[in-house]
Write a structure and sequence with these properties.
Helices cover 64% and strands 3% of the residues. The protein has helices spanning 22-38, 41-69, 85-104, 108-118, 120-129, 135-148, and strands at 14-15, 150-151.
Length: 157
C-alpha cells in the first residue's frame, strides 16, 4: 500500500519497468559516492551506523509515545502491539550506540552527519507539510520522470 503525502512527489516515484524507487535511490547514493570519493569506506560505515541507530532510537521512541498517547483506544488485531520492555531496551541500546562513539572518539563529522540528516526537515516542512508549490519545480519533476522513466505508483500497490 502506498502512503501518499509524506515525501516530495519526485522522491516517491517508482520505475515503470520494475517498480523500484530509482530517484530515491539516486538521492541516497549521491552523498555516499561523494563521501567515498573524499573520505574512506570505514568512515562511511561508522557514520552510517551512527545515523541508522539514531533513527532506530527515534522509531522505538515513537512506539512508546504511541503506546501512552493511544492507551485508551480499543485494542484490535490491526494495531501493532509490542511488550513495553522491548522498546525500552532498544532505546537504551540505541542511546549507547549513539553516545559512546562520540565520547570515545569525538570527531566533527558526527556533527556534520547529524546536521545532514536533519537538513531534510528544511525540505519537509515547506514542501510536504505546508504543500508549497513552485511552478518551475514541476518542470524539474517532469525532466527526471522522463530521464529515469519513473511515475507515480498505483494506490493499490
Amino acid at each position: 500500500m502506498v502512503v501518499a503525502g509524506h515525501t516530495l512527489e519526485l522522491l516517491s516515484m517508482v520505475s515503470v519497468r520494475d517498480g523500484s524507487p530509482l530517484i530515491s535511490l539516486y538521492v541516497r547514493i549521491f552523498p555516499c559516492a561523494i563521501f567515498c570519493a573524499v573520505g574512506e569506506i570505514g568512515d562511511l560505515i561508522n557514520f552510517f551506523s551512527f545515523s541508522a541507530w539514531l533513527f532506530y532510537g527515534m522509531s522505538f521512541t515513537s512506539l512508546l509515545v504511541l503506546r501512552f498517547k493511544r492507551r485508551h483506544e480499543p485494542k484490535n488485531k490491526e494495531i501493532f502491539q509490542v511488550p513495553l520492555v522491548l522498546p525500552i531496551i532498544m532505546i537504551l541500546l540505541a542511546l549507547y550506540l549513539i553516545i559512546v562513539p562520540i565520547i570515545a572518539d569525538p570527531q566533527l563529522p558526527y556533527l556534520y552527519a547529524t546536521i545532514f540528516m536533519f537538513s531534510g526537515l528544511l525540505l519537509y516542512f515547506p514542501f510536504v507539510l505546508c504543500k508549497v508549490k513552485w511552478k518551475w519545480f514541476d518542470n524539474v519533476t517532469l525532466f527526471f520522470q522522463l530521464l529515469c522513466k519513473v511515475g507515480i505508483p498505483d494506490k493499490d500497490v
